[in-house]
Amino acid sequence: MAFSINKFSGLGNIGQDLELREAGDSHVLNFSIACNERFKKRGEDEYTDKTEWIRLVAWGKVAEIIAEHAHKGSKIYVEGPLQTRKWEKDGVAQYTTEINVREFVILDSRTNSKSDNGDQKEENDYPF
Asked: pLDDT for 31-43, tens place per residue?
């Protein structure tokens, strides 16, 4: 069998309010980030912006930390494998492709991060 790598790495802004959910005896967090690209079209002087929305899922402690320290608009770097899930809804096969977040860095300044109650976080509030 040939060697292969399944690893996504991306940097973007969280696109919605985060909602941590229970999944059995663990937690799950589904969210998306917006990754922007700026380029010039051939023969044009103006730049064009393009946004790709990347679907992400985080489990367990990773999900808990992201939900506690990030919020809509937070800049985050994520790494993890690409995965496709399939399920049936009303007899129709549904698919989604997402990144399973294994590693991450929240890139907001610490004083701009908000806690669950909306208070400003202090620099020493971070556990990592």
From this structure: 999 999 999 888 8
